[in-house]
Design goal:
Layout lengths: L1 H22 L12 E6 L7 E4 L5 E4 L3 E4 L5 H14 L8 E7 L4 E6 L5 E4 L6 H7 L7 E11 L2 E8 H7 L13 E6 L2 E6 L5 E4 L6 H7 L13 E5 L5 E5 L11 E4 L5
Parallel strand pairs: 6-10, 11-15
Antiparallel strand pairs: 1-2, 1-5, 3-4, 6-7, 8-9, 8-10, 11-12, 13-14, 13-15
């Protein structure tokens, strides 16, 4: 089940990543502070320049001085320069091309259980799964829940997306488009602990709706001295107090539970 789940997630990310590459040529990011631009004017090598968008959102261009480009796409910035060159009688029919050699203003951070944590550029519209694919996908020990934290002025909005459920249902309405300065955090998969008279005591991934008997199976089953009678779980309540609960084999295991298997007296 675990392998199937991981395969489903990686299949979705691969398909979306391929689709993004195909559509990438039609997408344009908006310009912002820190971006480095190479501007070419056909037939006018003296006007060809490399410039950086300042903190105020402007670039410096020969004969035109400062030009505000913050929030414009490269195509829109090209048209603005063309219109300025025409309106100031500098060139009659200028042809301007802008290449974005470095986009630093549109970045998103990815942390947690992904293959490559870091900051990634947003080139045009990018969805949550686009960015996860760019980060190498979710690690096997990663969980199904992805948290998206977004700044809105002095406030922060938090969205939790269940990636596995999104894949199973085929409903991509939760595959949100990311924005500059968003933070994506991939939770580690929940764990449970099992010890006592089991073949392989230790820490294991907690699957959804896992029962005590399933947890016992993950631990390799009982030893010759073990018994299913008197199964106990150590669990912390909402206040953090440790409780010892007697459970049945059909009861559900919760995150961070410690399952204890007693030794048979007979």
């Amino acid at each position: 089940m675990n392998k199937l789940k991981i395969l489903m997630i990686f299949t979705l990310l691969w398909m979306i990543c391929i689709g993004s590459v195909i559509a990438g040529e039609t997408r344009e990011s908006v310009l912002g502070p820190g971006d480095t631009l190479k501007i070419f004017v056909y037939g006018q090598p003296d006007l060809t320049t490399e410039t950086r968008v300042s903190e105020s959102g402007a670039i410096t261009f020969p004969l035109l001085g400062e030009i505000l480009v913050d929030g414009l796409t490269p195509s829109a910035a090209e048209r603005k320069i063309v219109n300025l060159l025409k309106s100031r009688d500098i060139l009659r029919n200028p042809q301007v091309n802008i290449l974005t050699s470095s986009l630093q203003s549109q970045m998103v951070s990815v942390l947690g259980s992904v293959r490559n944590q870091g900051r990634y550029p947003i080139e045009g519209k990018r969805s949550l799964t686009d960015i996860l694919a760019m980060a190498g996908g979710i690690l096997p020990e990663g969980g199904d829940l992805v948290t998206l934290i977004r700044s809105g002025g002095n406030k922060f909005a938090k969205e939790v997306i269940d990636v596995l459920e999104m894949v199973r249902s085929g409903d991509l309405t939760r595959n949100l488009n990311v924005r500059s300065d968003d933070l994506i955090y991939v939770e580690r998969a929940p764990r449970f602990y099992i010890y006592g008279e089991v073949q392989r005591p230790g820490t294991y991934r907690l699957e959804r709706n896992m029962t005590v008997i399933q947890a016992l199976s993950v631990g390799g089953g009982l030893t010759q001295r073990g018994t299913e009678r008197g199964l106990r779980i150590q669990r912390r309540d909402a206040e953090g107090n440790l409780q010892i609960i007697t459970v049945k084999s059909s009861d559900l295991v919760e995150p961070d539970d410690v399952v204890y298997i007693k030794e048979s007296l007979f």
